[in-house]
Amino acid sequence: MNYKFFPHTDEDIRTMLDACGERTLDDLYKDVPEQLVLKRDYELPEAMSEVEIRHYFDELGSYNVPLACFVGAGCYDHYSPSVVSSIIQRSEFLTSYTPYQAEISQGTLQYIFEYQSMMAALTGMEVSNASMYDGCTATAEAMMMAVANAKKRNKVLVSATVNPAVRRVVDTYAKFHGVEIVTIAEEGGVTSRADFEQKIAAGDVAGVIVAAPNYYGILEDYTGWADLCHDNKALFIMNCVASALGVIKTPAEWGADVAVGDGQSFGIPMNFGGPYVGFLCTSKKLIRKMPGRIVGATIDADGKRTFVLTLQAREQHIRREKATSNICSNESLMALYVTIYMSLMGKQGLREVNELGYAGAHYLADKLVETGQFRMAYPDKPFLNEFVLETDLDIDQLQAWCLDDGMQAGLKLAGNRLLLCVTEMRSKVEIDALVESVNDFINSQK
Amino acid sequence: MSKIIEGLYYSESHEYVRVEGEFGYIGITDHAQHELGNVVYVDMPEVDDEVTAGEEFGAVESTKAASDLMSPVSGTVVEVNEALEDEPGLINKDAFENWIIKVQLSDTAELDDLMDAAAYKAMIGE
Amino acid sequence: MNNVYYGKLIFELTKEGRKGYSLPKNEIENYGIEALPAALTRGEAPALPEVDELTVVRHYTNMSNNNFGVDTGFYALGSCTMKYNPKINEEIAAHPFFSGLHPLQDVSTVQGALEVYYKLQQSLAELAGMKEFTLNPYAGAHGELTGLMIMRSYHMSRGDEKRTKVIVPDSAHGTNPASAAVCGLDVVVVKSRPDGTVDVDDLRPLLDDTIAGMMMTNPNTLGIFEHSIAEIAKLVHDCGGLMYYDGANLNPMLGKVRPGDIGFDIMHINLHKTFSTPHGGGGPGSGPVGVREGLEQFLPAPRVLRHEIDDDTYHYSVEACDESLGSISGFLGNFAVMMRAYTYILTLGRENVKIVGPLATLNANYVKERLKDVFELPIGGVCKHEFVFDGLKDKSTGVTTLDVAKRLLDYGFHAPTIYFPLLFHEALMIEPTENESKETLDAFIDVMHKIAQEAKDDPELVKTAPHCTPVRRLDDTQAALKPIVTYKELLEA
Question: Measuring CA to CA, which residue among B66, B91, B73, B71 is closest to residue B81?
Answer without folding.
Answer: B91
